[in-house]
Specification:
The protein has 119 residues and is α/β, with parallel strands linked by helices. The chain has a single domain, classed as 3-Layer(aba) Sandwich (Rossmann fold), CATH 3.40.50.720. It is built from three helices and five strands; from the N terminus they run E-H-E-H-E-E-H-E. It has a five-stranded parallel beta sheet with strand order 3-2-1-4-5, with helices on both faces. The longest helix is centred in the last third of the chain and has 13 residues. The chain is globular, with a radius of gyration of 13 Å. The termini are far apart. One of its GO terms (molecular function) is ferrochelatase activity. Pathway: Porphyrin-containing compound metabolism; siroheme biosynthesis; sirohydrochlorin from precorrin-2: step 1/1. This is precorrin-2 dehydrogenase. InterPro entries: Met8-like, NAD(P)-bd_dom_sf, Sirohaem_synthase_N. It catalyses: precorrin-2 + NAD(+) = sirohydrochlorin + NADH + 2 H(+).
Length: 119
């Protein structure tokens, strides 16, 4: 792996999944200033609130081929292995950076742990 820090301000980042792991990914992306799209037929209360307040875009439906168009970063964060694999394949085919939750060997990038102190 080659370490790098990315300026994702205003860049589209797609998170496929709407559970606890997806929520954590979305928080980090928003803190970095990304434009976030979540694709999932279900979402945590926090993600629903973020969508209703206009902070994220939420496609309230299952992932479909083509949903990753225009994204700089892609996160596959579902509990469905078939969906995870479909997202990974689409991202790799289009040259997008992909993070497959809980499967580091299938990721093209990793998100390190971050320790925050104070503001």
């Amino acid at each position: 792996m080659y370490p790098v820090c990315l300026d994702i301000t205003g860049k589209l980042c797609v998170v496929v999944g709407g559970g606890r792991v997806a929520r954590r990914k979305v928080r980090g992306l928003l803190e970095a200033g990304a434009r976030v799209r979540v694709i999932s037929p279900e979402a945590t209360a926090e993600l629903v609130h973020l969508a209703r307040s206009g902070r994220i875009e939420w496609l309230d439906r299952p992932y479909r081929q083509g949903d990753l168009s225009g994204a700089l970063l892609v996160f596959a964060a579902t509990d469905n292995q078939q969906v995870q694999e479909a997202v990974r394949q689409e991202a790799e085919a289009t040259g997008q950076l992909i993070n497959v939750a809980d499967d580091p060997g299938r990721c093209s990038f990793h998100v390190p742990a971050v320790v925050r102190r104070g503001r």
